[in-house]
Specification:
The protein is an all-beta fold. About 5% of the residues lie in helices and about 45% in strands. It has one helix and 14 strands; from the N terminus they run ββαββββββββββββ. Strands 3, 6, 7, 8, 9, 10, 11, 12, 13 and 14 form a ten-stranded antiparallel β-sheet that branches. A two-stranded antiparallel ribbon has the order 1-2. A hairpin with a 6-residue loop joins strand 1 and strand 2. The longest helix has 4 residues. The chain is globular and about 45 Å long. It starts with a strand and ends in an 8-residue tail after the last strand.
Amino acid sequence: VSCLVGSEMCIRDRDYGEGDFASLKGRLPRPVSGNTTREYGRFRHPEYGTITFNTGIDISTRTGEPVRAVARGRVEYAGDLPGYGNCIILNHGDGYYTLYAHTSDIFVAQTSQVEKGSVIAEAGSAASGSGGTIHFEIRQAKKALDPAERLAR
């Protein structure tokens, strides 16, 4: 339960989340149609040889493709986030969050409630003109989780 300081009003996680996000492991829908172009984990850049860690997955899609919430939740953040561009963070309760980055248009506002499958944004176009890429993360508190383990196959 989270309460606003100096307020009598409390918000229960289950009032805006799935109730038990962890139980949805392996059953979450993909947030956007397209192919995964970069998996979760260590990534070696093919040209420069640098190694980085991808905290989510990158999905290649067409420009304008609807981006959908993978589960019911409350919008914690909707706007520009350095390194992520236009970004939406949904709180699903019990410490679980999903992040949808590199969108063009955002259709939800902070603190609004969204349902599973709701269109929350639209995929933008990549600088190369080759279409769009959506970056998608699942987190439990601050810990990044592998989305491939949680998305339906």
